[in-house]
Design goal:
heterodimer, A: alpha+beta, Cytochrome-c3 Hydrogenase, chain B, three-stranded antiparallel beta sheet, 15 helices, 13% strand, globular, B: alpha/beta, Beta Polymerase, domain 2, two-stranded parallel ribbon, 3 helices, 7 strands, 24% helix, 26% strand, elongated
Chain lengths: 374, 151
Amino acid sequence: MEEKVEIIATDEKQEFIINMGPQHPSTHGVLRLVVSLQGEMVKSLQPHIGYIHRGIEKMCESITYPQIIHLTDRMDYLSAHQNNEAVCLLVEKALEVDISDRIKYIRTIMSELSRLQSHQLFWATFGMDLGGQTCYFYGLRDREMILDIFEETTGGRMLVSYNCPGGVMYDLHPDFQKKVKDYIKYFRKKLPEYDAILTGNVIFRERTTGIGTLSLQDAISFGITGPSARASGLSCDIRKHEPYSAYDRVKFNEVLFTEGDTCARYLARVEEMRESLNIIEQLIDNIPEGPYAVKMKPVIKLPEGDYFQRVETARGELGVYVISDGNKNPFRMKFRSPNFVNLGVLNHLAKGFKIADLIAISGSLDLIIPDIDR
Amino acid sequence: MDNKQLEEFVKSIDQDLEIRNGKQFTEVTLLPSQLYAIAKLLREKEEAQFDFLFNLTGVDYGQDLGVVYHLRSTVHGHSIVLKTRTSDRVNPNIDSVSDLWETANLHEREVYDLLGIKFTNHPDLRRLFLDSSWGFPLRKDYVDDINIVTK
């Protein structure tokens, strides 16, 4: 029997609720957005999260500090090194441990390599989301080499777990300095290619300029940090404001833009890649001799009290807040993850734009879902 | 302002507030009924201007439930910590600050989801990660026989 399907004429006031995700290719993870549309325009959207909520904060309450470091890898897996560093710095600050310059230099170089590979992946996937397949191959080609350098020294490619309280797990691989220097030379040649493919592309510019503009005032109120905030002119680089490790010994610029649109958020990250290269270049030849780890007590107990430590990950400010009752595991551990906070602004940014722009806007915030869910 | 001046500034708002100078931040302990008014003053007063809420944590102290607010000023660069706690475990209520700082909206939903603290005047207080059949897992008395192994 033939069924007659009647197509209802859409009038302009009708509102559609559409599910984007949890398996949408542009969210790079299990993020579900319930978008309410009027025609092609986004009226509002609600993020639904929790698909990979693992209860890391609860788990932390029953394990020791050296064990916690391995869990932090699994939050923002592209900033694994900085996440490890945050917990280590917190423990060292609480126990007032002095670490050698060698450790500080190694940590800073590793952090910047992490940032570099994270921004490369951002560049690759952002280009792909907007229809440039080539970007994906170029970005991953260059990122793979950094992961190889990581693998040689740390044994891990993405989940490095390289830091431990009081230093790093192993000394640098003998080839490390040479490989990093070769890589900087290689990548300096490749960066203009990045600009030629995407930054200067007319279609790309048309799709990003003036889209999803975030004002400075809103960036502050929504608590946005990282490149997304610096694109709106909010100076919030922890590396400048509260230098940790060896960041007080290097010269670099805090990348600031004032436009606050999707294009500025993209440009901020590309410029940060250049700054990361500068930082590594200043340090790589001057790594001092010394121990790569300070001997710590076998059981680490933090004195009673509250501790807070923040670091600048590739996506913004990661804050670790610990309430200790003097035991070997924390009484309460809270991770203030940059992606969780940055997600809150998505509805505000996407309102009034087309659904295709939503892809560009959420791509430019560079959200990592395991860091949102924790 | 440094921590010393901050302490005096908070004292000038209310003499009776409990202020503690921690290792990093000046910590002010407030009653839930005082919280909103003091937070609003800190947000709006010219010399304080705490416009950036960078962390909001829910804590189960065993007996009490509490919330910790970490505030920073992007104008002056100083930071302060506000702490509040309530002894009501069945129906804990704390005023929402989401109209002062937009970012509190998501943070408070997370605290409600994991600790069951209700924020009055929150525009959209729903569970965030878990569905409504779950208990409140970050509470110390939460029991899950299957997934939590106790020695």
